[in-house]
Amino acid sequence: MSASHTILICDDDPVVHQSLSLYLDAEGFRHVSAYSGEEALQVVDGSNPPDLILLDLMMPGKSGLDICQTIRQKSKIPVIMLTARGEEIDRVVGLELGADDYIVKPFSPREVVSRIKAVLRRTMAAPPGDIQTILRYGKLEIQPDRYMVTLSGEPVAMTPREVELLHLLASNPGRVYPRDTILSKVWGYDFFGDTRTVDTHIKRVRQKLACDAPEWEIVTVYGVGYKFETAVPGTGAHGSRNKGITPETPSAE
User: What pTM did the predictor assign?
Assistant: First the structure.
């Protein structure tokens, strides 16, 4: 994996570049450096964009949040935020703007490399022949292989992690997924017990898929986690409520 991936380190502290570079070199990653948000955007827009970005939150000029928002408007390159702040609001805002992960300084370079590997494993395209099921529920279609979600035939701008979260829930309608299980299956590693990031991503998915009279719903199971419900007449399967709508059965292509 590592030999073919380039990591962009964007931080105004040379010490961060030096320490991370040593560990990335040891793992066989290629890496490039940017010391401001503007430099990072130049690399992203260049002929050889990186495969993942380590992005510092606090930098001179444009902040990491501004840069993350700009990147998300035109690219799905994974972004891991680096921040010296521990306040929840910074983490939540970063995730809402499309960051795939965050790490609070001071951090261990070994931990950063581990997070990089986890994010890349998650965002890599499925290998040839590994065809995943396309799911359809009424006007909603989820294509996990293409990391594409459409609603009423129109594509919905979603990050890879949002697509994987939605696909996980929609693959098993009615099944309740605890937050810890979602973290394990979607994030692929122990997220240090911070299950609030699941809540943040669920909120974003709901906002992006808001529509009138949907044939499905992401339901909060208070104190546990979430489940994907389809609306069926009567009592129906999966314990769904009666909305007078017959769901489509998920189809494989």
Answer: 0.62
